[in-house]
Amino acid sequence: MSDVLILLLAFSLLILLWVRERLRRQRAVWKMLAERVRTLELEIGRLKTFSSRLEALEQRVLANPPISPPPAVSSPKSLIDPAPEAHKSAVASKAFETPSHKDGAVRHGDVVPAAAPGTTAYRNRILATPPTRIFRIDTPKFAQTGETASSLGLTGLEPRHGIKDWFKKAVNYEEMVGGNLFTKVGIVFVVLGLSLFVATQWHRLGPGVRILIGYLVSGLMLAPGMIFERREKWRILARAGIGGGWALLYFVTYAMHHVVSPPLLASEAIDLVLMLAIAAGMVLHTLKYRSQVVTSLALLLAFTTVTISHDSVYSLVAGALLAIALVTIVWRLGWYELEVFGILAAFLNHYLWLRPIIARVGAHHAFPEYHASCALLIFYWAIFNISYVVRRIRRKREETVSTVALLLNVGLFLGIMGYQVVYPPHTFLFFLTTGAVELALGQMKITRRRRTAFVLLTTAGAILLVAAFPYKFSGSQLSVLWLAEAEAFILAGIVARESLFRWLGLFALGLTAGQMLIVNAGGVANARWGGGPFRVEPRLAVLFGFATVLLYGNAHWLTRRWKPLITDELEAGTYASLSYVGGILGLTTVWLASPRAWMSPLWTMLTLVLLAAGRRWSVSELRIQALFIAVIAYIHTLSVNLAIAAAHHHDALRAFSVAVTAALLYADSRWAAAMEGRRWLPAAYRTGASSLIALLGWYELRPEFAGPAWIGFALLLMFWGKRLALRDLQIQAHFLSAAGAIGLLSVNLGLGSLGHFNRVQLLTVGTSALMLYLVPRWLERGGSTRLSRIPEVYLWSGSILLALLSWRQLEAVAVAVAWAVLGLVLFEIGFVAQSISLRSQGYALFTAAFVRMMLSNLNAAGAPGRLSPRLYTMVPVALVYFYIYQRLKGGPEDRLWRGRLKAYEYLCYLAVATVAILVRFELPEAWVAAAWAGMALALLWVACVTDKRLFLIQGLVLGYATIFRAVLFNLYQRSYFSTNPWASRPLSVSTAAALLLLALLFAFRLRTMEKGVPPASQRWISRAFSFLYRRPEQLFFLAPVALIAILLSLDLRSGLVTLAWGIEAVVIIAFALAVGERSYRLAGLLLLLLCVGKVVFVDLPHLWGTSYFYMTLIGLGISLVAVAYLYTRFQGKLRQYL
Amino acid sequence: MRRWIAFCLVFFLAAGAIVLSQKWKADAPVTPAALLRWVADTEREATRLPASTVRLTDEQEIQTGDRLAAEYARRFGPYGPGDKRIAATVEKVGLRLSAFTHRKLPYRFYYDPDSHFINAFSVPGGNVFIGRGLIRLMDSEDELAAVLGHEIEHIDHYHCAERLEVQEALREIPLGGLIGIPVEVFEAGYSKDQELEADLEGTRLAVMAGYSPLGAIQILEKLNHLYKAQFNSPKTIRQELSQVALQALDGYFASHPPTALRTAEIRKLISDEGWKSLPPERKLAVKEILKTCKTDGS
Fold first, then answer.
1. For B26, which residue in chain A has the nearest alpha carbon?
2. b/e for A90-118, b at 16 or more Cβ within 10 A?
3. Inter-chain contact B18–A821, Cβ cutoff 8 Å?
4. What is the reported pTM?
């Protein structure tokens, strides 16, 4: 309660200063106005007279045209004359006198040189004369003697004399202090000292003695005062004595019963009547002097004396009587300043009486005088209210002072009632009742005479009615009362158009807000952060909420509604700063009211409201506060909400609260219109929201679902980013996609073990890959080259994920097939959509599948009775390669390996290589060569049909491989124990040779007869290959011929070998002649020569004497003859060939 | 339309292959072994022809091989109580097999009593070595016959002789100086073709000698189990890739073909040869000795 007292004293001081300032300003304004009015009146009078004179002169001139120069017009003084008749002759005689001043100025009494009347120069000359005082206006008596305007019957024009005028009229300050101030102070000290003496020093002297002394002193002060008051010189001192005398007299009368012990006057009623009589006498007597100071001094001293000595509530009745006296005086004389001090004195008196009682019994505890105290307070409040309502206001200043009195009355009444209340919830009823009464008073007819009174009472009543509820629900916080008071001051300042009221209200608001934050909120913070249990404070939240609304209302609504009133920059800035204080209080309201988990969503909601309001009314402060609160909400979400489930995993509260916060942040971005220079603001909100959702996914979901969730979210962001043309959403989507991909790589793809089906992995990675494929659909195109590649990144990522997924999920042998299938699908889509990126991914997958086959499928071994894994896995892959080749033939000419190789050629090589390698590993070893020969045959056939040299090259390569295999394996590898005829060397080698020979059919068609000479710089192998490429028929004839020759040499007995070779040579030469190929003939001849050599050097020594030798000789001879025949027969043709 | 038909055909064929793979779950370790063996076989085939032209005579091979064998045999530890019986069993089975070889060489069979020696190898000239550790894995004489037959066929098909010739060429030393060749040269194995050839021919040899071909499958599976214990199946892609890299280095000079492949080949052989009624397996007589006799504490 001491705080309240201090505040009241501070307010009182401020009011005093304000009054002084207002009086000074008002006086200055009145003085200026009076000067202007005076000047105007002079001018008007002068003009009227001048005009009449002009008319007269004109008439005269018209009637009597002048022979001589027209008479000079005299100075304005002579023209404009309050007594024209008296000065007429003087004017006429001096009409043509010219002024003789050195400076040429026309002065009072001068005669203006002649100028024709009615001319412009004439009029100008007249008007150019300075408006000197023509009229003698006597200074009013009141201005000279210091009498008040009201005493002289003059009202409305002259300002009343105030403290400053007294200071100004003082001869000097020394005289003022010594003669005036000391008088009053001295009287106060005397009265107080005597009162204390009577009250406290009773045990030394008898009660009767003291009373007698008191009365004597009172009389000594009163009597001389009355006598000397008539004299001007002693008036100040005398009046002080009168005031002090009456005050002391009143106190002594009061003390007869209430102070001295035993009481000198036993009957309380008699004492009361005596006090009443003295009070009436004091009032009537002091009124005689019409001095507010004297009467005020008397009354206030009387209050003070009662305050010093009271011991029971009934002693306060004395104060009530004084209050009645005061109100009466105020009503009669209009001394409204006196009422302000009276209100302060009455309530202060009551408070000082209450204080020791409350200290003794404790706050909100019953005490015996409770009801009487309430009745007295109500009496004070009522009587001052009545005084306010019934008074007649004549000047604005009086209205202002009345306003102060009203506010003080209501405020002090509620404050002291609240201080003494036994059952705090009853204060709510007091608020309601008081508010209702004030409101009702405001609607009364008598009140409505004065608009200000009507507005103030209505407003005060409304404020109380409204404030009652937050007061109740805030747990009877006195801050509500202060806030209501402060708001009342502000509104009073609006109504009364007084900036000081508004400043007081602002000051009070600020103080209250500070007190709330430091004391109330600070206490809660200490409790929460000091390790105590977390408790929600709904009552405090109501208080803070109320304060928030109030502050915002003042900062934004009030300044808009009464904008012309607030012209001072400092005041306007203060209102603006209230907005920020309101924001802090709003933030604190939520902090107090909500459980931890709900703070962030509610703060974000507050942000939304602020943004919406800021945008609606173009208030940048609200948007700045919104940003600040949003940041706090975001940090809180990170540190609190996301950590909620440390104890409760998968807690719905965390999910819901974070989701709501994020949703609200998104909504905030909608309203956070780009502020000037801060275009990033809406994007910042959206980024915060997206990051919260992403983190929520991380916390809420199992690790294997976080990656897909992020990618799904990225997809969503991309979609909406495109739709709403918000680039930042797309950027967020990129980051989320990258994070999701990393999560998939590190977590999802590590689930389970290689080659084992894992449903979660399949679903998550598969879905994520599909989503990554979809993302580019909504990606903004354009921009730099690097940005334009972003869609490709997504596509590649999706494909890589699918490839890795298949690697994880499938059996080792199936991985290559899966990659080939994936490549097939991607290629086909890329083909249709004309996307080189997708086709490139297909090529990459085809390559990977090939490598995979080499590393895994070739090692596969199947179970007996089942198809070989190599077969059923590598054949489909080869088919895929062939299919792609076929597709590319008529399609885009994609190039690989930096453009060196065409894609379709590459695929063709892969396909053929796959088949060739499969043959190598799958077929019985003896039949690999034959199979390759068959492949070479097929390739040459295809080369003929398609006219693609590509197949010829592959056919040649396989031809070489066949020869290599046949010579180095088939001819030298065999089982000693095998009984399988199908694995025998003659069958396999001869089959291979036959197939190679069959390929001649196509080789001849494919040969080119171009004689392009290879450059000399080429190596021999290149030149040789170039020759063979152009002449494939050489390989496909000579190689099988050699094979057969070697086979014959290995499988036949020595003697039969020569015979066989001879036959072979004959066949060769015959064929050579048929096709006209010289090299073939030479080969045949060479073979025959070899036969001859063998016979001579090998068969002869080893087979001599055996039948084989003879058969060999005969056979060889026949062969040689046959060859000779052929040569002779086709001699002509030979020459032609040669 | 034709294009779509072709696409669907290829697609569903491939999809069917995937389904089949998942259903049948073929054993296919991810290693470059197949490619490396192909390269090695190709190199061998490339050297086969010149090797055959400079092949050692049987006498030269026997002479060199005997010297090598004597040198290796000196490293053996002392025989324990049961080792002589084991050695006698080995020789008995070996001689039974060698009666059916193509090359008539003086085949000798050496038993290494070291329990840590889980291997068998052959040196030129008909000398075959086998370790106690490998015999301990066996449960039947057929398994022993399969192993010995495998090693005999390395000699029979000139694999050892060719290796000797290669060493001679590589080290540029005369034949007489080849005694110093480390035994690891012959322990390390041969090319895939040679190994498979030895498997198949050795199995044939065993069958001709009256043993069951299942012995080869059984011992191979036991060796495979040991191999897998050393090289665990990869669980992750990263492990698989690491293993591929390691085995690419390791497998070029050593290691046999994948066991799965070898057993598959043998099963195929059994099917191709039409061995319907297989002789019953003969229990290994010295199994009890191997269980109870602890010569070196293992």
1. A862
2. ebeebbbbebeeeeeebeeebbbebbebe
3. yes
4. 0.63
